Amino acid sequence: MTTERVRVKGLSIYRPIIYGNTAVVLTPEEREAHPSREHTHRWTVAVRSAASAEESDIVGGADDLGYFIRRVTFKLHETYPNPSRNIDKPPFEVTETGWGEFEIQIRITFIPEAGEKPILLYHHLKLHPWTASGADVEVPPPADVAAQLGPVHSWQYDEIIFTDPFQQFLNTLTAHPPTPLPKARRRPVPFHIANPGSLEASKGGVPEFSSAMEKEEIQRLEEAKKSVVGEQEKLRASLTEKEKELERLRRELGEA
């Protein structure tokens, strides 16, 4: 076995990414000219590097991810022609039009040198700048109001972790260090971590991830994991009690 195909044990290396979508309202002229006149929005779903280029109106994408990602497959709603879209080179994104929100499956396939299995992510397409209309009810604003609010952004931060990578793949990763996230917040926060009911939650301009938000996101993930583990422990304890009760009932039936 060559040195390149030897795994570097005890080492983990990660690459920060974001995935999500941006959406804009079609103009009356665009809707009139569109083959499907019920379509109301143009949207783009994408997988990008987490850092944003300076003076850019694009969320993320400062780095080209093609050095370690071979393909990104976006599985759209089955009503779209060719719903599984394979993107084999950056930018890893799909632009479409539509009228409804739905869940998009995102499959990331790595370059052969990685020796890693593909990973699956899920993103709920967001089109509307939802605003509160009552205590417990939220409705999308009219199209003309939504158009004035501007593009809707919904992005999720994540980290792809490679544990015990092959030496050749490790060399590739270290040769392409990710652009550092800005230390301080310079733009609005992404939709999924904005305060509900705030302007940022409905629109808030072009968002950006920062290193401080990265730490907060990691903390949220850790808290979520702890919550899941806690629920698992409760279910396990409940199951144990039920098994004991079942065994007791069996003994009683046997003695009867």
TrEMBL record:
The keyword Nucleus applies. CDD domains: YEATS_Yaf9_like (cd16908). Residues 7-176 form the YEATS domain. Signal peptide: none annotated. Residues 218-256 form a coiled coil. GO terms for biological process: chromatin organization; DNA repair; regulation of DNA-templated transcription. InterPro entries: YEAST_sf (IPR038704), YEATS (IPR005033), YEATS_dom (IPR055129). GO terms for cellular component: cytoplasm; Swr1 complex. It is found in: Nucleus; Cytoplasm. It holds the Pfam family YEATS. Keywords: Activator, Chromatin regulator, Coiled coil, Cytoplasm, DNA damage, DNA repair, Nucleus, Transcription, Transcription regulation. Component of the SWR1 chromatin-remodeling complex and of the NuA4 histone acetyltransferase complex. Belongs to the YAF9 family. Component of the SWR1 complex which mediates the ATP-dependent exchange of histone H2A for an H2A variant leading to transcriptional regulation of selected genes by chromatin remodeling. Component of the NuA4 histone acetyltransferase complex which is involved in transcriptional activation of selected genes principally by acetylation of nucleosomal histones H4 and H2A. The NuA4 complex is also involved in DNA repair. Yaf9 may also be required for viability in conditions in which the structural integrity of the spindle is compromised. The coiled-coil domain is required for assembly into the NuA4 complex. This is Protein AF-9 homolog. It comes from Lactarius akahatsu. The lineage of its organism: Eukaryota, Fungi, Dikarya, Basidiomycota, Agaricomycotina.
